[in-house]
Structures are given as structure tokens and as C-alpha cells.
User: Fold this.
Amino acid sequence: MELVAPAGSLAALKAALEAGADAVYLGLKNATNARNFAGLNFSETDICTGVEHAHALGRKVLFAINTFPQPGRTQEWRNAVDAAHDLGADAVILADPGLMVYAHERYPRMRLHLSVQGSATHADAIELMREQFNIQRVVLPRVLTLQEIERVTRQTQVEIEVFGFGSLCVMAEGRCLLSSFATGDSPNNKGVCSPAHAVRWSEIGGQLDARLNGILIDRYAPGEPAAYPTLCKGRFEVEGRFDHALEEPTSLNALGLLPRLAAMGVKAIKVEGRQRSPAYVAQVIATLRAAINAANLAPARYVVRPDWQASLSRHAEGSQTTQGAFDRPWK
Amino acid sequence: MLKLPKPPALLASLGRRLPPAFLSLHFTAGLLVARHLNWLLPPAELEGKRFAIEVTDLGLRCLFCCRHGSFRPSWDAQADLELSASAADFFSLLQGEMDADTLFFQRRLKISGDTELGLMVKNWLDATERPAWLRHRYLSD
Assistant:
């Protein structure tokens, strides 16, 4: 299995390759990618350097253009596809079928990956994208159980990539408008949920309040692990009960499932976190590299080492890790 | 791995007694040295902004601002962005050994004020390669 690392900067890209990533995914400094944060992401010059660096090591660069073009601004997204081609990226990760048409017709030899934001949850959707645009790989949404991943893998010839570690998203991948209720911005139109300009943190007497455009979305007790300030992970009063109404802030951790995923034919494991530092990338990628090597070498004897678990848990959002929907017992 | 020991209580109480202006001058001098070594070149978005750094276990609070691409001590008690953490955690962030979000999730790094400016500073530091004398090998944990 290939290990796919996030990079929000050239320093993170280098850290990922040094730690043993097979491929790095990155995006431009604009709304064409779903991590459009202040000061994050790559200039075209940085991408050029990154691609050279990766290719010198025999690794790949995947170019994420995974938001949906806004009406009247399609050209910005097309320009990003042109840039990916001109800068020598090994593949583009797209979500929007309209953009797929452009990429496929203009650059028929360019490798296309269907983003997790494209939300293809079953083999028919994936096969349709292959027939129409010759997609080579699909990143599966994090709503699928292991059984469902196995079934999809059997039913398509498109390569399957699944998330192995990182913050979870509230299972409406690519079409989430939740944050726009509070801020007017959403992942689809601005490439961010909970844009930083709308976020305010205040701590008084150890109690930490998270506000999104003035709306209190969570209150952490002294010492309680915090999370990203997204509406989906906030705590609200619903029918007299005060709790996480939609999703708990947790990080996905598939360390324990690597041999099973490999046996199913999963082609790549992806790590979330282009917004995180090179230190995170280096530590998480080194851990997963060691685990994947162990799983490849002797799958039957594979055990999760406590130091791997500790290394990943340290970086978890909300300081808890879960196998996510992979083992959702009610499904 | 290079780690800062927990400061003795005496040092912490000393920190609280030093005049803030004295601390800010020294802190800013450090930033300027880094800038002259072509290491910390602030991006345009930091221009005109006022920052406060609070080192909790030393009892220090330094105020500085960014003007004409340079760091200067600030005499204004108000800041646009305030960051607060222990000396050891600030040091590991500076070394590039620790992830800011990880520290934040664990409630070891506090941020108040302009969150977008905070993100800008974080991403600027993350994208800045550390000079050899400061660099920590990520994987030697």
C-alpha cells in the first residue's frame, strides 16, 4: 500500500518525503482546494521545487483541486488544472465532474483521482467516473464500513485510497454547508469550514469558549482537550440534553486495520492534515511507514506497537482516536 | 532531544517582577537578530500588528509589533494576537519539533484575539525552514 501524506508547505513536503511518504498531496493558495487557510499552501514556484524534490527521490506529487467551481469563476479552477499539468504533478485530485470534463479533454494523459469531496460511496458512482473520465483512483468517503470498502474494492477496477489517520469530517463530504449558516463561508464556496476570521477563542478562569461569528459553539472545562471550532463538533442543548449534537471531535486511526485493508486490495492510505505543521507530518508519516512496512512484511503476525499508538494519539484532535465508521457497530 | 527544564519557582517570581518594557526590549532584540540572519522575515500580513507572548511558567509577558518588516517593542498594553504557553512548549514550537494544533488540542497553547492572524503566524513559522543550529531531528523522539 502506498502512503499518501499531506503538505501545507514546502517544509512539510520535505518532512513527509524524509519520513517515508510514497506520495504527497498539496494545493494552491486559493479557493480551489479545501484547505484554503491564511498563509498555508503552495505558490507555483514552491510546487515546482516540490515536484523536482519528490521526483528525484522517485516519489509522487498529487495536486488537490477538490472544491467546487463557483458560478462565474470557473476559470480559476481551470487555471489550477493547467498549473497542475504544467508543473508536472503526477495526478490531480478533483471533486467536480465539470472540472473532470475539462481535465480529461484538455489533458487526456493526465492521471485523475476522484477526491473524497466527490463523495462516491458505491461502485456504480466510481465506475461511471471511470467510464466518463478514465479516473485512476478514488478516495473513499469516511462513512464506509470495512465491509462496504471491501465490496466496493471488489466491484471496481479503479484504485482505492482510504483515510488512515486524521481529523474526521461530519459525513457530508464535499457538500457541507453547515458553517455557512454561521459565517457565510463553507468548504464548497471558500475552501474552508469555520474560516479563521469568524473564530474567536476566549479563556477565563481555565474555561475556554469557542465562538463562530459571535455564536457560542463550545465551552471546554479547564484541562479538557479542545477541538477545531467547527459547528459539527460543537456542543449544543438539544431537547434538554447538552452534548455533541452531530459528531464528537475525534481523530480517525486505522493502525489496527492495515493488514485487513491491504488484503482487501486497498491501494493507498491517506493522512489528513494539510493545515498541520511539518513536525506532525514527519511524526505521523514515520509511524504509518513503519506500520505499513510491518503489515506488508508479515501480515499474519502484525500487531500494533504501543509506541506507534502513542505517537499517533499525541496528535489527535480532542485527544481521542477512533476507527471511525470502519467499525461502526450499528451499521 | 534538547529539552528545557521546568524553571525554578525563583526564576518565575523574578520574571513577574521585571518591568515588561525591559523584557519586550530583549525579546524583540532576539527577533531582530533572527531577522538579520535572514531566518525570520515576517510576511506583509503581519505589518502594523501588535503581538503579546506570555510565557506562563516564567511569568513573562512580552509585547512587540511588526513595523516596516521589522520587529519593535510595543508600549501598547493591547495586542491584536496573544499567545500563551510554557517556556518549553514555546521552545519546541520554535525548533519545529511540536505541532501548534497538537499543543492547542491539549490546552497547552492558548490563543486570543485575531484568530486569522494567529493562523497566519503559525503557517508562516511552519513554512519557515529552521536553521541548522536550531533544528531538531523530528524523528529522534
Observations:
- Chain A has a mean pLDDT of 91.
- The two ends of chain A are 26 Å apart (CA to CA).
